[in-house]
Design brief:
This protein is of the alpha+beta class and 223 residues long. The protein has five helices and seven strands. It is globular and about 55 Å long.
């Protein structure tokens, strides 16, 4: 199953998720002090994922530039806005943190990340894809009780899957902002059992994924 017309090489951004140290927001308080919030160097994967979905849903092609947009440009500002949207505060960070703290596999008193991925989240993602809709995913990539590790997680956009029910395997094809132009990126694993998911070599392992809450936005003109 593939969402018709979507490929990362044509519908994703051509620049990587690799940003300089630029704050998300800057403003002055009445005392005259300048406050800076956030840092793009930590990644804008959520903003890039949401913006790519916005553009595709509005039948628009992304800009062809291969360098990250500069601070203050319409595209940069839109990516920051959509990054903030993708955080889904407070529910989004709370879900990432809860999943980070959960074990991979079930315990007597709690379902693990793998069970939640396959039995709660994957059916909703599959329904999106079967309906011809791309589906934003939150990837949980670390086991930690430290809120400071929330930034080690990641966001991507699912656009298709290969499901082999007799073999019990699935590959979820995704646009990953870390790998511009790459149509081969996929999360692969068994649909049952305890084996881990596989992902791109060199990336942090994917413990599990969930369907991100998405609210549509009409992107502005970027030229």
């Amino acid at each position: 199953m593939r969402v018709s017309g979507f490929l990362p090489s044509t519908n994703g951004f051509s620049f990587p998720n690799d940003w300089p140290h630029v704050p998300f927001l800057e403003f002055r308080v009445p005392t005259g002090q300048e406050l800076k919030i956030g840092d793009a160097a930590g990644g804008l994967c959520g903003g890039m994922t949401f913006a790519v979905k916005d553009l595709f849903d509005h039948a628009r092609q992304p800009p062809t530039q291969t360098a990250v947009p500069e601070k203050g440009t319409p595209l940069f500002q839109y990516l920051i806005k959509r990054a903030m949207d993708s955080f889904d505060i407070p529910a989004g960070p709370a879900k990432y943190y809860a999943w980070m703290a959960l074990p991979d596999h079930d315990l007597a008193w709690v379902k693990g990340v793998r069970w939640r991925t396959l039995h709660q989240e994957w059916p909703a993602v599959k329904a999106d894809l079967d309906a011809g809709r791309t589906s934003p995913l939150g990837l949980v990539r670390t086991r930690s009780y430290n809120p400071g590790d929330l930034g080690r997680n990641h966001q991507v956009l699912a656009f298709g899957y290969d499901l082999d029910e007799p073999a019990g395997t699935v590959r979820v094809h995704v646009y990953d902002p870390n790998h511009p132009g790459d149509d081969s990126v996929a999360i692969a694993g068994a649909t049952s059992g305890s084996s881990a998911f596989s992902y791109v070599q060199g990336e942090d392992p994917v413990r599990g994924f969930f369907r991100s809450r998405f609210q549509a936005s009409n992107p502005p003109a970027f030229s």
